[in-house]
Design a protein that fits this description.
Shape: globular
Distance between the termini: 10 Å
Strand content: 15-25%
Helix content: 40-55%
Structural class: alpha/beta
Bound molecules: zinc ion
Number of helices: 11
Radius of gyration: 18 Å
Number of strands: 11
């Protein structure tokens, strides 16, 4: 149906209190699985890639596949670049056809974060209908280019939020609130709900301006995800779980069919596994029928 940016999907989601999943893919098979699951549920979706697959597969290849699949799908689909720390590379992906760009300058000092985020936001708004996500505070764990050990991780300072939003012109904000990338070391990760609520009120209390993003979806309990959505989170990133689904399904298929040499069957097994994982998240996000 439509190639959209994230901002338009998330304004509607925030108002109606559901979330749109941003699913991290590394291959064509995963991209198809994520889209098929959303078509089946009539749900909007954000396909995201980190920087590594754009270098391995090529930015233009990823965009071409996205366009081909999105143009014929009966749902709105956004293509998002996740955690890019390089301003020039953000611009390159925007030029190529990504519809949402995350400039992650969260490891930089506050002023540098503002300048870099502002530069990407201005560029993306100038060249087209591309929305931009910024990060304040640092989400712990490992995410492609960005590595943060937990002791270094720091939460988003609510006192900086309004200045950041106003000076950068950013469209979406990812505040660090205690979620992490990778696998949580504890069953009940400590999430700072109060901080999240405060940040939402500061930015969007008067009128909705900048939807909030939750990073590190994998491993969060369902009640945590639902509570964050009820407090205003409208984009939830899921990466690690899809990687596990893909690798586990591949391993299982090969183990069960050791004498077979039919890659298409492995792809089918991966597609089924990823689609099931994604369908489960769609249920948690409450976005069924929202496309
Ligand atoms: Zn992230």
């Amino acid at each position: 149906m439509s190639l959209v940016n994230a901002k338009e999907l998330l304004f509607k989601a925030t108002k109606e209190k559901y979330a749109v999943g941003a699913f991290n893919i590394t291959s064509l098979v995963q991209m198809e699985a994520v889209i098929e699951a959303h078509v089946e549920c009539k749900a909007p979706v954000i396909i995201q890639t980190s920087v590594a697959p754009t270098k391995l597969l090529g930015v233009n290849v990823l965009v071409a596949v996205y366009r081909t699949l999105a143009e014929s799908a009966p749902i709105p689909i956004c293509l998002h670049l996740d955690h890019c720390t390089d301003v020039a590379y953000c611009k390159k992906c925007a030029d190529a056809g990504y519809t949402n760009i995350m400039i992650d300058a969260s490891k930089q000092p506050f002023e540098a974060n503002i300048q870099q985020t502002k530069e990407v936001a201005e560029y993306c708004h100038k060249i087209g209908n591309i929305s931009v996500e910024g990060e304040l505070g640092t989400v712990s764990g490992v995410e492609d280019q960005v590595r943060v050990v937990e002791s270094e991780s720091e939460l988003c300072n609510p006192n900086q939020v309004l200045e950041f939003v106003e000076r950068t012109g950013v469209d979406l904000l990812a505040p660090a609130i205690g979620t992490a990338h990778g696998i949580y070391k504890t069953k009940n990760p400590k999430i700072d709900f109060e901080r999240f609520e405060k940040i939402f009120d500061l930015v969007n209390g008067q009128s909705l301006r900048v939807p909030l993003v939750v990073h590190g979806g994998t491993g969060l309990p369902r009640e945590t995800v639902e509570r964050l959505i009820s407090l205003g989170g409208s984009k939830v990133n899921v990466s690690t779980e899809l990687k596990h689904s893909m690798i586990d399904a591949t391993y299982q298929y090969i183990t069960d069919h050791r004498d077979e040499y039919d890659p298409g069957k492995i792809d089918s097994a991966v597609k089924d596994a990823v689609r099931k994982t994604v369908m489960n998240w769609i249920g948690w996000f409450g976005c069924t029928g929202k496309a």
